[in-house]
Amino acid sequence: MTRTQPPQQISDAERLAWLRLARTEHLSAAAADQLLARYPSAIEALATLPELVSKRRGGKRPVVPPEDMARAELDRINRHGAHLVVRGEARYPEILRQIDGAPIVLTVIGNPALLSRPGIGIVGSRNASVNGQRFAGEISRDLGQAGLTITSGLALGIDGRAHEAALATGTIAVLAGGANVIYPRQHTKLYEQIAEQGAIVSERPWGAEPMGKMFPHRNRIISGLSLGVVVVEAARRSGTLITATRAVEQNREVFAVPGFPYDPRSSGANHLLRQGAVLTETADDVLDVIRPMMADPAAALEKYRPDNFMQSDAPLFQSTARDIEDHDFIEETDSAPMSLEDDQIILNALSSSPTAVDELIRVCNLSAPKVATILTELELTGQVVRHPGNMVARVGSS
Questions:
Q1: What is the CATH number of the domain that holds 303?
Q2: Closest CA to 22 of 13, 33, 11
Q3: Are residues 256 and 166 in the same domain?
């Protein structure tokens, strides 16, 4: 199948028209897709929109922002050395362009070329165990060294560790707020490192604060930029499962790291494995599937259909995602940070798999004497158990 290549260069007026379409209120992704497929340029699509709106009956009518408002946003993006990448130009990532409801525009801080390199998404629990974070770092490093860009959401836990391990080889952070809005604030230094060495990406307006309902939209971009998604620790009802669902809908492969049955952070990944996700214990498990696609990701994904997920599984995934989005999806906020006692910090970092005490000290950012005292107390109360080699594990509970 021959793909029509978008132009290498577009005019300033055309870029501005794309931005105005992206910021049009009450214009659904499906309607935008139909409009852009019908007209050869965003300028023509934008010019036709008022006539189409006048014929609309019922529902909220799309409202196109004034040109000066869009120009002001574009000026802010340019002043900060960022890039507005639009769907109608060649540097927009082709594999993202292929998905339904692809973002009309992307604001990129850093290197836009990273978005078109073959990549893999790595996502998981914010409240990740020490072992989960260590695994995320190791597989991110190994996949990066194999030539894959690591894409994630800059969240605490698994996302952050995956980004850190891939700074040297290339990593993309997709945000739910504006590209210049650092979230969570605990990752300010990491954000700055990614902006310098990788790419920060957002479809939201410059300066927009993150809102809970936008995180599922962010997740579709993580999977859309990736040849597949690796899930490392995830609860059954979590934003990570939404990312996996979007990956299935986009014909991406889903990889899942198995976890201990008594640890609720493993329930989502184990659920994915039961549904057909690729069991993942090393980077080679991912590369065995992904490597044949790396030469031409867009061409490979046009005809790729994961054969491990049955077609009948899709409604189950979509139902799970809708349930999470409609009722239970709550993203942590910086405005009211949760304060944890030191013993709870240590318990949250542990799982039923043994963890080295030295690693626990590093991840929890507590002194060695403090950790030793707390571990003794937790052992006496039956909450942790010691293992040979100065290792400890949380006592599992069903």
A1: 3.40.50.450
A2: 33
A3: yes
DSSP 8-state code for residue 27: -
Beta-sheet strand order (sheet of 384-387): 355-356, 391-394, 384-387
The C-alpha angle 134, 165, 345, rounded to 5 degrees, equals 40
- Domain with 362, as residue range(s), is 342-394
Q: Is residue 6 one of the residues assigned to a domain?
A: no
Give dist(CA 288, CA 46) in Å, integer.
45
Length, in residues, of the chain: 398
d(CA 120, CA 106): 19
Sign of CA dihedral 89, 93, 95, 96: negative
Whether the pTM exceeds 0.70: the reply is yes
Q: What is the pLDDT of residues 94-114, one digit of tens each?
A: 999 999 999 999 999 999 999
The string of pLDDT tens digits covering residues 190-239 is 999 999 999 999 999 999 999 888 999 999 999 999 999 999 999 888 88
Distance of alpha carbon 262 from alpha carbon 315, whole angstroms: 27
Cβ neighbour number for residue 124 with a 10 Å cutoff: 33
Domains contained in the chain, number = 3
- Residue 7 is assigned to a structural domain of this protein: no
